[in-house]
């Protein structure tokens, strides 16, 4: 009996199976700016330390990177993992059975206890987890150059939309670009959402974006939002059309521009330029104490495969992405805040601290428009907004166009 037991042990039956040899894991992502590349490199290094082999496929531009990933998945030549946003962008892939879930990782690491509900509602589809979120970005921060404000004689941080407009008028009078903006449809949508949340408020935001309520879209309150959005266009410079977001941020860093409305990924550019939050630049999450905090972020999905080694590589990446140490250092570089609620963020900057404090107030949590709208609806909204931004279209016509685009 002893000999038999020893033989069984030697054959490995009662022992845990040996891990499969590490397989090259190709990761498609769009992190190509200086700060984004540094953040991606950190994840790659941590993945290698955990035993994986990272193969980097960086493609400039989120739309382009997603298109490449989708084409390769559909064409049966998928990467190991691909970056998407925490929105409905990958829903079609799930419905077509083209993604692996990571349910066992989610269960073993108790995602339901450490991840915010708006994010869980996106990555959890029909009870299964199809994406690993890595951060929380908030789209509609107001960033401002301390040097530009000082030069324009702005002593007090704006605390309302009227005060923000007054500050931008002073910047314009001082010969400083009031609004550093990249004239691209997605950036104009961010400016619109900033006006909708700070001028319209949470209830109107939900009525228009989530409920697509025709009465709300054609209301005077929403008209006021659209007029504020259009007013913002009067503060940009002639070089705005086609400008990338990080190039707009560079205008703030140099003091050539005063304000930028953009997600907190811009902090990575400030950090790369050795600028310090609260000293060189300021950050305003909302212009009222109850301004909605629009939650979005980056996530990775895992194309379907039956290869045990590839599945193992996917699960290893899922664990590395949500590792507390990775979360802290990655988000410092990326400018976002950790997706995990249990990470000690006391070493992060004051803007991140502000964001973490707001995240404790669930009443301020809201998803970005892409969480509530289908890709077609979101695309239609972007087209309408960018046309309104760049041409002289009556605001009433814009309201009717949005109402028509949102009809079920």
From TrEMBL:
InterPro entries tied to this protein: Bact_solute-bd_prot1, SBP
A GO cellular component entry from the record: periplasmic space
SUPFAM superfamilies xrefs: Periplasmic binding protein-like II (SSF53850)
Domain of life: Bacteria
Keyword Signal belongs to the record: yes
Locations listed in the record: Periplasm
Protein family per UniProt: Belongs to the bacterial solute-binding protein 1 family.
Protein's job: Part of a binding-protein-dependent transport system for a sugar.
Protein name: Probable sugar-binding periplasmic protein
Source species of the chain: Undibacterium fentianense
């Amino acid at each position: 009996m002893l000999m038999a037991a020893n033989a069984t042990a030697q054959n490995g039956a009662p022992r845990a199976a040996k891990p499969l040899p590490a397989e090259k894991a190709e990761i498609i992502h769009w992190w190509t700016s200086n700060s984004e590349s540094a953040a991606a490199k950190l994840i790659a290094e941590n993945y290698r330390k955990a035993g994986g082999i990272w193969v980097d496929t960086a493609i400039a531009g989120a739309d382009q990177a997603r298109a490449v990933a989708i084409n390769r998945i559909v064409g049966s030549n998928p990467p190991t993992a691909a970056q998407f946003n925490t929105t409905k962008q990958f829903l079609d892939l799930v419905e077509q059975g083209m993604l692996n879930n990571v349910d066992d990782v989610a269960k073993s690491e108790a995602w339901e206890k450490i991840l915010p509900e708006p994010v869980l509602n996106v990555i959890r589809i029909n009870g299964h987890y199809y994406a690993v979120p890595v951060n929380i970005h908030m789209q509609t921060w107001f960033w401002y150059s301390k040097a530009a404000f000082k030069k324009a004689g702005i002593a007090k941080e704006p605390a309302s939309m009227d005060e923000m407009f007054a500050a931008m008028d002073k910047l314009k009078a001082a010969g400083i670009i009031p609004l550093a903006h990249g004239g691209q449809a997605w950036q104009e949508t961010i400016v619109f959402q900033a006006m909708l949340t700070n001028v319209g408020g949470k209830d109107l935001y939900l009525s228009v974006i989530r409920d697509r309520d025709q009465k709300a879209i054609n209301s005077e309150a929403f008209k006021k939002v659209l007029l504020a959005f259009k007013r913002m266009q009067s503060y940009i410079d002639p070089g705005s059309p086609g400008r990338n977001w990080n190039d707009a941020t560079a205008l703030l860093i140099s003091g050539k521009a005063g304000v930028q409305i953009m997600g907190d990924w811009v902090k990575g550019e400030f950090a790369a330029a050795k600028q310090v939050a609260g000293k060189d630049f300021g950050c305003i999450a909302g212009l009222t104490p109850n301004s909605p905090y629009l939650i979005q972020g980056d996530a990775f999905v895992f194309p379907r495969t039956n290869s045990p080694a590839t599945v193992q590589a996917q699960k290893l990446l899922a664990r590395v992405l949500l590792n507390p140490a990775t979360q802290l250092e990655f988000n410092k570089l990326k400018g976002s805040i950790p997706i995990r609620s249990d990470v000690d963020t006391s070493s992060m900057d004051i803007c991140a601290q502000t964001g973490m404090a707001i995240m404790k107030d669930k009443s301020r949590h809201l998803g970005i428009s892409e969480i509530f709208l289908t890709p077609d609806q979101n695309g239609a909204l972007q087209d309408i907004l960018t046309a309104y931004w760049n041409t002289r279209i009556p605001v009433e016509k814009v309201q009717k166009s949005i109402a028509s685009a949102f009809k079920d």
